[in-house]
Specification:
Shape: globular
Number of strands: 9
Radius of gyration: 20 Å
Amino acid sequence: MPPWRTPVWPTELELQSDVGPSDWILPQLLPTVISGGDGTPVGGIVPMGFPAYVRVLHPAGTGGREPPVRWREMAAANGRTYHPLMQWEQIREPDPEALGLGRISDPSTGTLEPEQCQVLYAALEGWTSTPGACWIGIWSGFGSLYAPSGRSASIARFQRPGHDEERADAELDALVASWEEAAEAVKRAPGFHHPGREYLLAKGPCSAICLLGEPPLHVTPSLVWPEDHAWVVGSEIDFDSTLVAGSRQCVDALLREERLETVEVGSDDRLDYGGDVINPPVERR
């Protein structure tokens, strides 16, 4: 099998021409720094009015080595305080290499790692009565949604060991054709607007959401909610954590999920850089 999806756009997820099902979210969002508010609260990313909220922390990278670095480890190594509103930039100081693992890459922003994505949505399936019908908001600024021009991509980039040139050439042709078809559908699809952001709307089962993260798209949906509005997931493109609004029982289940690093937050809590008032910035000499 090639190391990418063909077709590029998952057939299980259907782009929508009617974005009306997203209308309920915007009136329930708090102002954010994007629209002139005082910082970025949790309720500016996922809607207000839910019983509980949880923050899923994206892990830091270790150059491909496993396991990835958790925020708790980094905070402990630097003598910083681990708390729900901490910011990675502040707990990685004063020594970004304090764990003795060499250079550690910062957590991904706006992107859930594949394993995280699978664990999160598998857990959330049990907390909705409509797991087969989820609405998926996709930030329209992801460059991978738009196909490369013709065959500008190198065959070597997509070739796997053992592929002969003719086979690799045919596979690249199929990839580019599928990618261009998906890009045309994306360009035709209407978007819905939140402050400073535009999203496409798709629909499909919870079990298919993470397929968007496979190559070559590598896309994490920015907003996801099931038909029954039991919960909402928000992966703001500039944040290194994902937010979930849901019932008390749903959030408690996520807090117990050991494969995710989670902390409970409130809807009014600030998650921008200025929100961490416990760990002051460290001035480097």
